[in-house]
Write a structure and sequence with these properties.
The structure holds two protein chains of two kinds. Chain A is an alpha/beta fold. Chain A folds into two domains: about 55-355, Rossmann fold; about 355-384, no CATH class. Chain A is about 40% helix and about 10% strand. Chain A has a six-stranded parallel beta sheet with strand order 2-1-3-4-8-7, with helices on both faces. In chain A, β3, α6 and β4 form a beta-alpha-beta unit. Chain A is globular and about 70 Å long. The two termini of chain B are about 30 Å apart. Chain B contains twelve helices and 14 strands. Chain B is globular and about 60 Å long. Chain B has two domains: about 10-195, Rossmann fold; about 210-335, Rossmann fold. Chain B is an alpha/beta fold. Classes of the chains: A alpha/beta, B alpha/beta.
């Protein structure tokens, strides 16, 4: 929108330049040009676990750590279904099959960086260190799940679509202005990339050179709407081209690949080279939420091929073949993960239910007279 | 009745409201290095009304900067800056251009403290020129304050004098929570007064009694204060004492001052230039009805714009925007009830 009002009269009249060439606003002097994202997603491990170039892989310890994170968040996802069905968890959006997409990206951050997760990114938040007990509390609709740990910059899961994208740009810009080399990472889905805030944020981040990494998890579905209905575009990473920033398309079921391209994007951002859009090509194996019935909009045949590309199976085959993991150490890892989860579940069970008047807590630093009166009203209503 | 916090400087300067706002912004940028100012055309140009004139030259392009043209992200980016510990001051060029940002305002601005249990809070100010009376083109004269006041977790401030504008803006900037600061376009340059130099604040949530009177209370704010005062002067010529209350802050509202006055006068007229249905005038009226019904000797009257878009038609714009004649008529009506 532009200003149509008459401005004060002290503005200088514009003069016409000689029409030797069309005037352009070429920012190439300020920012580097980037090649468009290729259509074929970047991949390090084939689905059978074989590396295309063994020399390009991260060190064994990093590979094992990424595997552990994926195992850990899948356990959360699987237990989440059971807890939901037994009434011990509220409606939550599962992320099975997307573990490489979430772990490989979040693992490229440190606890000084910002994470803006959507509701499907429980796995990313857990990877960066959000405690399991708090995470369970969030999906139990308890305010204890809203208490974000002081040592992390992980924001509570965003329910509206794409609206947290400009926030990530602002946090990234603030870090830049403060002179840190911290970055902000924001997640979105293929459906979310239709929202205006997604496009605005990419443009702002490019124009302001904000150290921001945008993770577009293309999991094929926005609830019941497939990506082909969502957009005529096939390569969503190419949306970066429109904003003059790098776009990268990566196999979202190859955690070594997602980790590598994200680490490169994070390094660029820390070095002052600005934002990157990363499209992780993956698939939502499960329902939209535990309360969703996907048989209304897709068949088992739609998902069958993707089960064979399971990100955990892929890395497991590789680690076993390389001797980085054994059947025994894998079993021990699973046992340790299960014990950690059950301990966290027990902790979450100890969180007390909120008091009625907590509804009015944390609206302002100091409650207004109106809020003070309404608190008294609530206390009268509940007979205290 | 103007309560100044931190004693004002001994010196003062005659300023218009827009100059007083510019002074407040400069003082905030000078005092607190975490303060940032941004929006469309606020940097090089100094804002379409020149509210940020000279500030980029003085504080640099990092602190005072032009953004791409997208209101949702101006507000949304400011939210992110606030999360990260800065004090963002965003300018929306006209209040009527704020609507693309309503998603950010409704979905996020007032919720961050609540949904993080105060782990994060947003010390953010969103300034916007609002209101009519200067024959602006279509969409440039809206008064959307009721939409904003309806959003939990945000404050709404609307000054009516240069001195108030400066002190309230500094208080808004220093407030730990999000504040909308709406500036009546009509008042930017129409009046000048002696404004204290240096830093001072006027607390949010405290109304100002502009004129005292025993017969009718007129509750108003922003661009309607001068209109109401003119009506009060006309009424006084007919022996009617009108107490004009400038609310100054819609959220939090100083109901105490309003009720104290209505208890004395027994008659209330509420004046705004916003559309009538669902306006903030109705919130004021409802509060008076709830808390002061025993004092009332007449119905509470609202003098407002009409339930139509603000008209850009110069010849008849003044029919829409309340004028002293309409306010005076309402005063006579409640007196004659």
């Amino acid at each position: 929108m532009t200003d149509l009002a008459s401005a004060p009269t002290n503005s200088a009249p514009t003069t016409s330049a000689p029409q030797t060439a069309l005037p352009t606003a070429d920012s190439s002097a300020d920012f580097p040009r980037h090649a468009p994202a290729t259509d074929i997603p970047f991949q390090l491990l084939a689905p059978d676990g074989n590396a295309h170039d063994p020399a390009a892989l991260p060190d064994p310890q990093t590979r094992l750590s990424l595997y552990r994170h994926m195992r850990r968040i899948r356990h959360f996802d699987e237990r989440g279904w059971v807890l939901y069905r037994t009434g011990r968890l509220g409606v939550f959006p599962p992320f099975k099959g997307m573990e490489a997409s979430q772990v490989g990206t979040a693992a490229a951050l440190t606890s000084d960086d910002w994470l803006f997760p959507t509701y499907r990114d429980t796995g990313a938040a857990l990877t960066l260190g959000l405690p399991i007990a708090r995470t369970l509390a969030y999906w139990r609709t308890s305010p204890h799940g809203w208490h974000m740990p002081e040592h992390l910059k992980v924001l509570p899961f965003y329910i509206p679509i794409a609206t947290q994208y400009p926030h990530a740009v602002g946090a990234a810009l603030a870090e830049q202005r403060k002179g840190t080399n911290n970055v902000a990472m924001a997640y979105i889905g293929d459906g979310g990339s239709s929202e205006g805030d997604f496009h605005e944020a990419l443009n702002f981040a490019g124009a302001l050179n904000a150290p921001c990494i945008f993770i577009l998890q293309n999991n094929g579905w926005a609830i019941s709407v497939p990506t082909r209905t969502q957009t005529r575009a096939v390569n969503l990473a190419r949306r970066a081209d429109g904003y003059g920033i790098p776009g990268v398309r990566v196999d979202g079921n190859d955690v070594l690949a997602t980790y590598q391209v994200t680490a490169e994007a994070v390094a660029r951002a820390r070095a002052g080279e600005g934002p990157t859009l990363i499209e992780t090509v993956t698939y939502r194996i499960a329902a939209h939420t535990v309360a969703d019935d996907p048989t209304r909009y897709r068949t088992d045949a739609d998902t069958a091929g993707w089960a064979e590309k399971d990100p955990i199976t892929r890395l497991r085959l590789h680690l076993l073949a390389e001797g980085i993991l054994t059947e025994e150490s894998d079993a021990a890892l699973l046992k340790e993960i299960a014990e950690e989860f059950e301990a966290a579940l027990n902790e979450a069970d100890t969180y007390p239910e909120p008091e009625p008047a907590e509804i009015l807590d944390h609206v302002f630093a100091e409650p207004t007279p109106q809020l003070v009166a309404q608190r008294a009203e609530i206390l009268r209503e509940v007979g205290e | 009745m103007t309560a100044l916090q931190s004693p004002p400087s001994q010196t003062s300067t005659t300023r218009t409201m827009v100059a007083a706002i510019n002074d407040a912004l400069a003082i905030a940028l000078e005092r607190d290095p975490t303060t940032y100012l941004f929006g469309e055309d606020v940097g090089v140009m100094g804002g379409v009304f020149r509210a940020s004139d000279g500030l980029q030259a003085r504080f640099g392009t990092e602190r005072v900067f032009d953004t791409p043209l997208a209101e949702a992200s101006i507000v949304g980016m400011g939210i992110g800056m606030g999360l990260a510990g800065l004090r963002p001051i965003a300018e929306i060029q006209f209040a009527g251009f704020m609507y693309p940002a309503l998603d950010q305002i409704l979905s996020h601005l007032g919720r961050y403290r609540h949904r993080t249990r105060s782990r994060y809070h947003l010390p953010m100010v969103i300034r916007a020129p609002y209101g009519g009376g200067v024959h602006t083109p279509e969409q440039h004269a809206d008064s959307p304050e009721a939409i904003l006041a309806h959003v939990p977790g945000v404050k709404v401030v609307i000054p009516s004098t240069p001195t108030d504008a400066k002190g309230l803006l500094l208080a808004a900037i220093e407030d730990p929570d999000p504040v909308f600061f709406l500036e009546a376009i009509k008042l930017y340059r129409s009046t000048k007064e002696s404004v204290p130099d240096g830093h001072y604040t006027i607390p949010l949530g405290k109304a100002r009694v502009v004129t005292e009177g025993d017969d009718v209370t007129v509750i108003t704010y922003g661009g309607m204060v001068e209109v109401s005062v003119k009506a009060a002067e006309a009424a006084r010529a007919h022996g009617i004492g009108v107490e004009v209350i400038d609310l100054r802050t819609l959220v939090p509202m100083d109901l105490e001052t309003v009720l104290h006055s209505v208890a004395k006068t027994g008659r209330a007229v509420v004046v705004t230039e916003a559309p009538r249905t669902g306006g903030f005038h109705s919130e004021i009226s409802a509060n008076i009805a709830e808390h002061a019904i025993d004092s009332l000797r007449a119905p509470i009257l609202r003098v407002t714009g009409y339930d139509a878009p603000y008209p850009p038609f110069t010849a008849i714009e003044d029919v829409y925007r309340p004028n002293p004649v309409r306010v005076a008529r309402a005063i006579r009506t409640v007196m004659g009830y």
